[in-house]
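anyone seen this seq b4? input:
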Amino acid sequence: MSTYSDLKIELIGTGEQDGTWGTTTNVNLGTSLEEMITGSADVTFASATKTLTLTNTNATQVGRNLRLNLTGTSGGAQDLVLPALAKLYLIYNGTADIITCKNASGTTVAVPAGASQYIWNSGSNVTVATNYHTGTFTGAGAFTTLSASSTVSGAGITARFAAPGPIGTTPSTGNFTTLGATGDVTIGAGSGQSVTHNAGTVNIPNNLIYSGTGAITQPVGSDAQRPSGAAGMFRYNSDSGEFEGYTDAWGSIGGGASAGGAVYENTQTIAANYTMTTGTNGHSVGPITINTGITVTIPTGSSWLVSP
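predicted toks r here
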């Protein structure tokens, strides 16, 4: 009487199947062994655990194949319960969820959606069959999702997370369009560092508050280094030694140079065209020199007093 191996190869009893043993042998070779060595079969899920079993027949059986292609609707993470026998499997998870390969008990292997994994089924435990690589993983493209179901370790991982590098150490194409934060933001690691605005305009939609007990240093430059004037500009003039601003011409800022509010200074030389603000009067302490080609315009109804 025939018996069957664990993988259901039919073992013909002595003296049996006279005249038909060749057919049995052909099925053993052409079906059973081929499935074990290179066969591939679909395992279709329907939102539930899938259990594979083997019965005493050398006819085709899904659980005997080397490669199992998991398809169908997973409906969430599911289990694939394998036959309780020693066998190598190549699992491809074509479902949308993690599928955990297991026996009725013992260790398990979770195969992520879209991934392939060699596993070893000992009949009581399922383990990863290949988990060591001596080379470097290379190739075109990039990770879109990198995940782990257990501990990620190693000298490189530890060193990287112990001292992470800055974002964007290598220039690339594209720019931030919106960079936001829900908490405090620190730019720069020390007082000697700087932030450069290459853009000509920095928009401030709300009131900007500078807190602390320090000071803000304004741009410093000579008369010759003045930028093209625009209303609202403010700087420190290194020639006159005072702060100056621009309305429709450059002019000193009242109180820019004083001794406790008791002494107010004005420059002795007017080196740029200047128009007094309509409806105001002006007072300067002379002598005052107006450079050649320079005009001081006093609006109708205004006065400019130059006292000795």
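The chain has a mean pLDDT of 86. Helices lie at 21-38, 155-162. kinda curious what u guys think
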